[in-house]
Amino acid sequence: MTTALQEARNLIPPDTFAAVAATVRDNNPGVDQHLAERIVREALKFVATCGRFRDHGMAPSRIVDEGWHALVLHTRAYEELCARVGGPVHHFPERPDPSRFDGAVLAFTTSMMRQAGYPADTRWGDPLTGEIVVAANCQHSPPDCQVTCMNKPG
Length: 154
Hints:
Oligomer: single chain
Helix content: 40-55%
Distance between the termini: 34 Å
Low-confidence stretches: 140-149
């Protein structure tokens, strides 16, 4: 495991990490433990990056969004995580619409993650491929953002 992956996993206590991964599995019966943990690590990287670069609109892939949803459900741990990474990282959900997928937005987000020291998993996923199927069946794009995003700037 690389240092960046270890650092992302260590953003929350091990028991919380296990609980969040279990939430991903509960919500996605076809997801095995290894994949659930990958999804949670990517969500942690995403949230940490959003906390650090608060003035940039970023969006996760729907696979990473599934991990973000699981993190948000663990409210105390999520609040503590956000406090450690720079402040609240708000989730702005939309009605599902896979047609909003924009690869440029994911490329921007993953480039910001690299800048924050968290290289993104190469399987973040295009929602149209169905490579990894998760319950989060959408791509987010609030119209008032500079970039298709869920973590609104400012």
